[in-house]
């Protein structure tokens, strides 16, 4: 008997993906958002362990006031100890931080622009407009000196103070930063509230006027949707992702939000999907043990 039953399951393809680039943010974003204050030597040891697993891109620290962020004290000394300096990036919150990065011959800097005034003021004590003016100066100077620039579009989906963010405004703000000549834009779900539908919708809008190769994504695992959001991003052509060893971190301005997407979980999922990352999962798990020991924290990564 012939019947035309509805298809209850639709198979989904992620195009032809041979490689995904992983940017490790544990030594900066992860450690900075814990109570642990690691020595320069400990931070160096953790970075070297991560490199041994095959990770080729690491955010090692930030040039911020050591009084405000004690865990990032000595980033200049750390950078001097590291080799392969084109594999490392540092966060700079303002022109002062950028000048320190220049003095230390840093080859890649990260800027953070929150899309709401409330969050941006909490983070760097500036309005969004004030930050965009300053960031244009930094990007211009970086381009003149062959310094690679990456800008995080933070709280791109939800703000802990203003709620759901209008993605049309996010696209407008992102396009403004792109017009300044930035090398890479990172769309960040800073408090881990986004779902795959929202992720797909934003990247679809961004792709209407931009090449997806210019974008990467930064997810938190607050509601256990980090990997689902990665898959949604893959479907929209995104091939670069931030992650953090052991899922360290969180957001200091969003009580209850848990850490970043764990690097071992991201790499493990890619491995199961036959997508290469160039990273050895067993070696990565050793790095997780080291990070757990150094921070005295039970880390949240699910891979074992």
Give me the secondary-structure topology:
Blueprint: E1 21-24, H1 26-32, H2 40-52, E2 58-62, H3 75-81, E3 88-91, H4 95-103, E4 108-114, H5 117-124, H6 128-144, E5 148-154, E6 158-159, E7 163-164, H7 167-179, E8 184-189, H8 196-207, E9 215-219, H9 226-235, E10 240-243, H10 263-272, H11 281-295
Parallel strand pairs: 1-10, 2-3, 3-4, 4-5, 5-8, 8-9
Antiparallel strand pairs: 6-7
Helix pairs in contact: 2-3, 2-11, 7-8, 8-9, 10-11
Search tags:
304 residues, alpha/beta, TIM Barrel
In words, what does this structure look like?
The chain has 304 residues and is an alpha/beta fold. It has a single domain, classed as Alpha-Beta Barrel (TIM Barrel). It is 40% helix and 15% strand. It has helices at 26-32, 40-52, 75-81, 95-103, 117-124, 128-144, 167-179, 196-207, 226-235, 263-272, 281-295; strands spanning 21-24, 58-62, 88-91, 108-114, 148-154, 158-159, 163-164, 184-189, 215-219, 240-243. The chain is globular, with a radius of gyration of 19 Å. The chain starts with 20 loop residues before the first strand and ends in a 9-residue tail after the last helix.
CATH topology: TIM Barrel
Termini gap = 49 Å
Average pLDDT, all residues = 92
User: Regarding quaternary structure, how should these chains be classified?
Assistant: single chain
Decide which structural class fits the backbone: alpha/beta
Task: Give the count of structural domains.
Answer: 1
Number of helices: 11
User: Strand sequence of the main sheet, in spatial order?
Assistant: 2-3-4-5-8-9
- Unreliable spans are 1-12
